[in-house]
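Customer escalation, tier 2.

The customer says the design service returned an amino acid string that "doesn't look like it belongs to this structure." They asked us to rerun it and document both sides in this ticket. The original structure tokens are below, unchanged.
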């Protein structure tokens, strides 16, 4: 199975779950920076749109150009209540996170999420909790180069994410 196959399969599952939210409890975190154990804990019954590897992910293309130009998350979950992107998912099979250790894809997604969304929607209604997630086979997380960049991100930016109620999480996909 290729990286794109993993992405397509996860998107299909997320689209199915949009009409049957309980299915989201099957997408469990192996590790998360909050008490969330699955995507259901973040989304619950809130309607969302799945944006798959598409430039529509960034409703503010002129904002944060140095950070987001040329970057597109594999999967974005956008709330139909607030219209905000709430969850960014980067899918990996073998490739490393893009950019360097200090300016990785996941850091860029976290900063974009913080700059373009609100913890609580203006309407004071409940919304999807924010998250930056890497979905990859367990072996990806155990490769030294990947583990070092991911661990650096968590150690360096985990407290920032926590302060603004952004979950940083891992979804371990089947190896094939």
């Amino acid at each position: 199975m290729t990286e794109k196959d993993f992405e397509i399969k996860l998107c299909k599952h997320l689209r199915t779950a949009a009409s049957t939210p309980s299915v989201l409890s099957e997408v469990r975190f192996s590790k998360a920076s909050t008490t969330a154990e699955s995507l259901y804990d973040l989304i619950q019954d809130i309607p969302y749109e799945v944006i798959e590897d598409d430039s529509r992910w960034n409703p503010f293309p002129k904002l944060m150009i140095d950070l987001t130009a040329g970057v597109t998350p594999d999967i974005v979950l956008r709330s139909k209540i607030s219209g905000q992107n709430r969850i960014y998912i980067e899918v990996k099979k073998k490739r490393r996170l893009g950019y360097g250790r200090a300016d990785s894809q996941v850091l860029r997604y976290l900063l974009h999420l913080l700059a373009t969304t609100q913890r609580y929607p203006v309407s004071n209604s409940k919304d999807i909790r924010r998250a930056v997630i890497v979905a990859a086979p367990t072996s990806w997380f155990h490769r030294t180069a990947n583990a070092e960049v991911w661990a650096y991100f968590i150690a360096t930016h985990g407290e920032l994410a926590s302060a603004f109620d952004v979950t940083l999480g891992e979804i371990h996909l089947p190896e094939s």
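Tier 2 assessment: The sequence is consistent with the input. Residues 3-173 form one domain. The CA atoms of residues 4 and 91 lie 8 Å apart. Sent an explanation to the customer and offered a walkthrough call.
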